[in-house]
């Protein structure tokens, strides 16, 4: 349980940092809302992303392992982008504002989120 909470926290922070870096091409929460509402939206998106990444991501990566090896790992970026787009769709069903400007921005967001997660995990685990 502690690992899940840690992953959720790191994912939420990484998504927030990525939204700051990518500007208007990736947004979480509605602009002009209170800080509390934006933090709650970020936590909700982080929770959905963590669940999607842990369950769906693990299954998809296991099934596509030969293709991941064949593409030298580049397929992982595409898979993570698709997981972000799935997270966008799921959160929109619950009324949480999380917007990506299309597939290529999702690919860039997947790269930025992965880098942010790596850095934040290294900082938090120390």
TrEMBL record:
Keywords from the named record: Membrane, Transmembrane, Transmembrane helix
Q: Which residues form the signal peptide?
A: none
| Pfam families named among the record's database cross-references | Phage_holin_4_2
UniProt entry tagged with the keyword Transmembrane: yes
- Stretches that traverse the bilayer: 39-60, 67-90, 102-124
The UniProt entry, under PANTHER family, shows: SLR0284 PROTEIN
Q: What is this protein called?
A: Phage holin family protein
């Amino acid at each position: 349980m502690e690992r899940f909470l840690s992953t959720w926290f790191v994912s939420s922070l990484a998504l927030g940092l990525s939204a700051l870096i990518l500007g208007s091409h990736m947004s979480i929460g509605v602009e002009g809302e209170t800080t509390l509402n934006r933090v709650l939206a970020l936590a909700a998106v982080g929770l959905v992303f963590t669940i999607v990444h842990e369950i769906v991501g693990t299954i998809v990566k296991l099934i596509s392992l030969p293709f991941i090896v064949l593409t030298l790992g580049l397929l992982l970026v595409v898979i993570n982008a698709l997981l972000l787009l799935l997270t966008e769709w799921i959160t929109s069903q619950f009324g949480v504002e999380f917007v990506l400007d299309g597939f290529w921005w999702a690919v860039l967001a997947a790269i930025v989120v992965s880098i942010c997660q790596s850095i934040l995990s290294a900082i938090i685990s120390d």
